[in-house]
Amino acid sequence: MFGLVVRFTCKDDTTAEAFDQLIGETIEGIKAHEPGTLVYTVHKVEGEPLLRIFYELYRDRAAFDFHEEQEHTKRFLGARDDLLADVEVDWLDLQVGKVTTP
């Protein structure tokens, strides 16, 4: 499996609202077209209204590469920069855990 955690910090309340809308549109494309994307979740953080944390888990690196090539992902990547003050990415290497796959 292949995964990452991404911390997005929006510029302000207005951009956070626009970012959330962009996320919603992107998630629909992921659900409809990406069988190799096992988990793609977005979290708000209590007490941090401008912060969003993504947790992404893919079947393998090829599934991640497929995700990156999709039009909905390209649209998200192109539109997000105007809305964000910061992006932090942590690439994950699964060590141990319990994972249920479909």
Automatic annotation (TrEMBL):
InterPro entries: ABM_dom, Dimeric_a/b-barrel. Residues 2-92 form the ABM domain. This is Antibiotic biosynthesis monooxygenase. Keywords: Monooxygenase, Oxidoreductase. One of its GO terms (molecular function) is monooxygenase activity. It comes from the Bacteria. It holds the Pfam family ABM.
